[in-house]
Each structure stands twice: as structure tokens, then as C-alpha cells.
Fold this protein.
Amino acid sequence: MIKLKNLAAQICGRLVGDGNTAITGIAGIKEAKKGDITFLSHASFQKHLRHTQASAIILGEDIGPHDMGDQNCIYVKNPSLAYAIVAELFNTRSYKRKREVSELASIANGAKIAKGASIAPYVHIEDGAVIEKNVTIYPFVYVGENVTIGSETRIYPNVTIYDGVKIGRNVSIHGGTVIGSDGFGYAWDGEKHVKIPQLGNVEIEDDVEIGANVTIDRASLGKTTIKKGTKIDNLVQIAHNVTVGENSIIVSQVGIAGSATIGNNVILAGQTGVRDHVTVGNNVKAGGRTGITKDVPDNMLIMGTPHMPFKEWAKLQGYLNLLPQLFSKIRSLEKKLHGETDND
Amino acid sequence: MIKLKNLAAQICGRLVGDGNTAITGIAGIKEAKKGDITFLSHASFQKHLRHTQASAIILGEDIGPHDMGDQNCIYVKNPSLAYAIVAELFNTRSYKRKREVSELASIANGAKIAKGASIAPYVHIEDGAVIEKNVTIYPFVYVGENVTIGSETRIYPNVTIYDGVKIGRNVSIHGGTVIGSDGFGYAWDGEKHVKIPQLGNVEIEDDVEIGANVTIDRASLGKTTIKKGTKIDNLVQIAHNVTVGENSIIVSQVGIAGSATIGNNVILAGQTGVRDHVTVGNNVKAGGRTGITKDVPDNMLIMGTPHMPFKEWAKLQGYLNLLPQLFSKIRSLEKKLHGETDND
Amino acid sequence: MIKLKNLAAQICGRLVGDGNTAITGIAGIKEAKKGDITFLSHASFQKHLRHTQASAIILGEDIGPHDMGDQNCIYVKNPSLAYAIVAELFNTRSYKRKREVSELASIANGAKIAKGASIAPYVHIEDGAVIEKNVTIYPFVYVGENVTIGSETRIYPNVTIYDGVKIGRNVSIHGGTVIGSDGFGYAWDGEKHVKIPQLGNVEIEDDVEIGANVTIDRASLGKTTIKKGTKIDNLVQIAHNVTVGENSIIVSQVGIAGSATIGNNVILAGQTGVRDHVTVGNNVKAGGRTGITKDVPDNMLIMGTPHMPFKEWAKLQGYLNLLPQLFSKIRSLEKKLHGETDND
């Protein structure tokens, strides 16, 4: 239990209502019951504001009192951030596993496991691997030779980490993800595809989160890099020698082809594809399923396949919608012209 | 071996030919040999009807005798269903594993395993999990804390089930699938992406089948739900707080973004994408690689990106094909008009 | 260390420079240091030729001396192939695992493991499986009943191979891949989807490489086939009863629907989709994210959704770019015509 006024203080919010209200949990705006705090997660839920059973609501300053009932409110500048903080207060999921190395793990003699690491049963760690303190490794994780894993990092079940991959601190890697598999490179010798050995590695910097069943290939030479603070959703493909900058957001089912470079603070929405050797600038935002085929300058908002500035894309959609009208206009122009001609 | 007349009776079919024919197996129309029963799986195979070596063919009532040779036939209303039933009769794959808990499984003391469950070697089950009777769990499956798995359910190898996930009865989950991984949610604090704790869970209802390497994220709050009888193909992404209704068909590589709601009896063909917070009505059918960007009313047949009614899409394709012609028409109109003007 | 002249001999290259130069490693053109050999991997790197610190460069005969500094060069006909060969010379990744069966592997009595096979800890092999000589199987691999795996094949961690799958010689299967899961087939009985038993299997021929988190479904009847020498990238979906011919290249996130047939020497670029029952001819090349909806004759270069010959697609893109201009032309035609009409 936490009093509403204390909660407001923690998120630097402006409290309107009874600060002594007891908050015992957090829930969605439709599901919330007495004792819960809730928040407005999406504009489409605004209609539920008047009817929620929640004991308090976290809101942006843009929501006026006329949209509301008489609930207790905390107004904040950044509702998403306030929600993240409050949700953590009520986090009852127990990430914490035993700080020990299971006897059922199979660990090479030459691997180094720091104190405070939690290694589950059925983890396999190869020679030369270095696991720093407070790392958590779930069952069925394969850690290849000379892999390094920084402190506080969590590796969920069934993850495969090939030899030589470097993983930073406070990284999360979700179930089924594969890091460091061979890049897709072959040379045609006239009769068959000859494999180009993939001799590079992968480097995942600090504070990166990687979703489930993602694939990140090792470089052919040099390294594939995911920089600090970037977040990658499920089922994303990152090919060999790609660099993804800092604090970027790569949404589910995006594919980034070989040697492409993605800048800092980029957002690639779901199912977007990036061609090989392309450079995407800083702060670029690509809408859902964009096909990025050429370099993109900084700060662009893009859409479509092949990609174009969002405004052009929107205009093009407008023209496409008018195509039937265009065809009938031309028919009437033709008629008119033929009519006049006939009259001559 | 089964006599053809008995087989016809089991699928309520109309037998034309020798009911005493011995059927010993099932095979495709091109591969079938004497003793096999076959069926017409796709219109493109109709040309093979006259030449199949099969001892009998299952057919829809729409196939006339003129398309055929003199083979034995069973005519049925629903050939696919008849095929499903006959294939089960000749199913020699041995799903049945030993009804025992392997000594090589690692099972927390607080987990409850019902009698008749089959737990393979190298399965890891956490505290508080409840496994009902006749559940089959293959090797390298991770079952998190407080997960429940209903009776008769099959979990194939290398599946990861995070804490708190609820799985119904008679569910199949194929290899490599991840259920209950964290939803993709962050709040930007001005300097970095702050993780929004994903406190909800996932509920898979009875009779659902989920393909290989699928990802289904847990809800941020509340639950991600897959309702009774829905079938999900390989490599599908289902984001946090999504609801998929009953008896829907989600084909391979579809991505459904956060908080989207999919109705009952929906078909989303391969590589389709659904935007976040969108509602797709009951009985909607989306063609391959549809980009669903807005709410879709019940019973619509849609196509394209952004999606539109199928008929509009087909019309638009027609107009696009005519674009070269359109441009030349305009050139000739311009000429004509200029010509007249010049003559003035 | 290897002398440059010896290296040139091995790749049948024309050496320009000091053949006694000692080469000690291989690196990318920008990262190379003294002692390294490098190569020109992509036209966009040509500008780095003058500035590379490499001790030698592998080049195609098309690169003239005016593009270069005074570095040692080896000119070859096929630079990619030369690179593949040289990279193998400097390959320090140690694929070689102990040639033994781990005591921590769980292997059914009826499975046959040839001498020289390397079976890691936490591998599970079912009854009737046959593992030929020099096969390498990494941890957390599931090998189902009656699976056969040909000599020299490598199966990376967390791979799932269902019962009855046949894998040829010298095949590589990367982490998390699932082979032989049930094809996606159901018959609607008026109330629910009835599963069509998937009784066929999968056959992977010799010299195939399959990336990470790929899914290849077993056939409903007969077999799903990947022929000799074909290479499949990460996160590809191959549905039941598909045939992929010899020496084809299937790039990441491609989806091939049921019963489609792909020819020999085909290239399907990333995110391409192939409709069910479609036949794609030999030597077809499909650009990124092509939507293949109908049969494609041999030797075609295709693009777009629905697919069309590349030249048509390029023309269509041109017309789409001219749409704004087209609309304004029509407006001016209308004005002109109305003006004339008004003057009458």
C-alpha cells in the first residue's frame, strides 16, 4: 500500500483529489478496481476516463477536467514515464533467481563465473567465457567460447550465444534469440556456393534489450554492433556487419540487411526492411513496413516502399485514391475533344 | 488395411466403384500407389485425376465423371474434412511418449504434475507450476513459475513459457515458440528509454495450436489472449495486450501490434501486419501481406497496404496497369489541343 | 604468416607489388592494419582504396591503378571467391569440438551414433535416429525418432528436428531452427477447425546451410524438400510440401507458402513472399519484398507486389512519381478546353 500523495511525489506530479487515498495496485483503465491506480495509455481509451473504477488516474496536463469524472488525479508532464515508475513500485513478478551456480549446469573449466551470478540448471558454458557479477542465465542457454557477459545482464531460456560474442552490462535477451550465428555470405564458383567464413563477432553494448526469437549474425570481418540503450523487439533480423546506433527502437519483424548502418534515436516500425549497405541517419522515423532502399538523411520521417518522405507518401496515397476519378476525367476530356472535332 | 466401403461409411461418402477394395495407406495424387487412397487437394492437381495409381480417390460432388478415369471414388460434401479423418486413420507417427516424469527433468518442489503427464529429460519446471493429466512436454522446454498447462496439451522441444502464463486443454505449441516474454514498452525520459515493467500475462484457451518460433508477449497490465480453437502458424508475432478471438487463422509471419483486437473466425493471410490498437471484426479475411491500419468492420474481405476492400484493391491494380496507357492518352490529348490552338 | 606470392598462387591471382610481404591476417578495408590482407567488398568502399593500411588488397580486374595508392595488389577474376578462400586460411574460429559423445547427452538405446560424431552435453536423441560420422551436435538439440543426419553435418544449439526428418551430408543448421514441425492444415467442420494430420516429412539434401530461427514444416503427405547446395538465411518460413531446388539463395524473412515449388539457382531477396501452389522457375531473381502470386517462368527478374518483370516495375515507379504532374496536366487541359468552350 502506498498513499496517493507519496506516489504523486515520486513521479513529481500535481495531485488533484484526496492524497490519503490508499493505492494497492495498478491496472488498465477498464479493468481497474478500487485501490488501483490507472493511466491513460492511448487516446482511444479517453472515453473510459469517466467510468473507470480506479482510485486514481495518472494524466498528462493536456487532459482537461471536462473529460473526467470526479476521480483523484495526478497530472504529470510525461505520463508514460510516470507509469513506468509506478508500475515498477507494484511489480510483483519475481525476476530474482537464486544467486548460485546450479549443479546441473555444464560449465567448462576455463570459464569464469563471478560471484553473485545465477546460473540455472541445463545451462552450457564453453571455455574462455566470462560471466560478470549478478548475471542471470536461465535454462537451455548456450554460451559459446570466449563470450563475455557484463554484470546485471539477464539471458532468458533457450538463447544461443555463439563464440566470441561480447554482451554489455544490464542487457536483457529474451527467449529463443540467437546471437552470433554466421552471416549469410557465399561466393559462386561457377558450380556451387562457396561459404565465406564469418570471422567477425557481435558486440551488444550496455542497457540494450533484445526480444524473443531475434537473430543477430556475426560479422564476416570486424563486428556487428548494437549500441548502448537500443531496444529490439521480437523476430527481428540483423545481418552481418550491421551497426545500430544508440537508443534506437527496432520494432518486431524488421529486417536489416548486411553492412547497413542505423543511426542514434532511430525508430523503425514493424516489418520495415533496410537494404544492405544503406545508411539511415540519426532521429529517422520509419512507419510500419517501410522499405528503405537508399541512404536516409538525419531527422527524416519516411514511409512506403521504396521509402519516401512521409508527406510525399501521404500525397501519393491521395493521388492513388483519385485514380478512378482521373480516368473518368480523361474519358470526358476525350469525348469533349472528339465531339468538337466531329462538329468541325 | 480397411475396406473401401467401410472407409466411405466413416466419412459419410457416396461410393462409386468396388467397396471391397483394400486400402492400406494414404498418399498424394501423384505419389499414390496401389492400395493407397488419395484426394484432390488443389484445383491445379485436377489434371492428375486420370493418371493416379491410387486405388481410390476422395472427391467433392463438383467433380464430374468426365474429369476422371475409372478409379474407385468416394464423393463427399467436404473433401478436406474427409481427408483429415482418413489421414488420422493411417497416422503412423507416434506422438505417444512414455507417460512418466523423466529423472533427467528438473522440477521444483512446489510444482504439481498430474498423473499421466509425460515430462521428457531436460525439461525445467519452476515453482508453483501446475501440469494437468496427459500433458506431454518435450525436451528443453522451460515452464516458468505459476504457469498452468491444461490436460492433453503438447509442448514441443525448445519452447519457453514465462512465469504466470495460462495454457488451456488440448493445446499444441510447436518447437522454439516463446510465450510470455516482455511486451515492448518503454518511456523516454529525455536521455534514455526507461523500461515499462510488463506485469500482465498471457492466456491461451483450449484447442489452440501454435506453430514453431512464434512469439506471444505478455501484457503490460491485464492479459494477452488467444481464444478457443484459434490456429497460429510459424514465425507469427503477437504483441502485448492483443486479443485474438475464437477459431481464427493467423498465417505465417503475420505481426499483430500492441493492444490490437482480432475477432472470431478471422483469417489473416501470410505476412499481414496489424497496427496497434486496431480492431479487426469477426469473419474478416485479409489477403497475403495486407497492412491493416484502421478498424475493419465484420465480414470484410480486405487487401493492400493500407488495407482496402478487396474489390477496390483489384480495381486499383487495374488502374495501375493502365497507367502507361493513361499517360499516352494525355499526351495525345495535349497534342490535339495544341494542334487546334496552333491552327487558330 | 603466409607470403603474399604464395597467397596469390592459391587464388590464381595476378600479383602487383612485393611478393615477399608477410600476410598475418585478414580485415575489412577500413579496419585493416599492417600485415593484413583486405579486399573490396562493395563499390561504396572504393573510396577507401587509397587510404587502407592493409599490406595487400584483393581486387577484380575492373579496378584500374588510378583508383589506388601504391599498395600491393592481387588481381583476380572472382574477388568474392578469392576472399572466401583467403578468409578460410586465416580462420581462427575453432569449430572443432571433441569427437565424443558426452555423458550428459540423453540418447535412446535404439539410436545409432557413428564413430567420430561429436554429441554435446544436453543433446536428446530419440529411438531409431541415425547419426553418421563426424556429425557435430551442439547442446539443447532435439533429434526425433528415426531422424537421419549425414556425415560432416553441424547442428548448432537449440535446434529442434522432429521425427522422420532426413538431413544430408555437410549440412549446417544454425541455432533455434525448427525442422519438421506440423504443416499448417485444418478442415472446417462447420463448428471448429479439425487438424489435418501431417504425415509426411522433410528432406534436406547435401551441402545445404540453414540460418537461425528458420522454420521448415513437414509435408502433409510426401515430403518438403530442400535440394543440394541451397542456402537459407535467418527467420525464413518454408511451409509443408514446398520444394526448393538446387543452389538457390533464400534471404532472411522470406515466406514460402504450402506446395510452392522453387527452381534451381533462384534468388529470393529478403522479406519476399511466395503464394501457395505457385511454381517459380529456374534462375529467377526476385528483388527485396517481392510478392510472388503466380507462376514465374525461368530466368525472370521480378519485383513488386503482385510481382511483375523488373523493367515493368521500374516503369510503374516512374509513372507513380509523375502522378502529381499528371493531375496538374489534366487540370490545365480541362481549363483550356473549358476556356475554348466558353469563348465559343
User: Anything to note?
Assistant: Residues 14 and 210 of chain A are 35 Å apart (CA to CA).
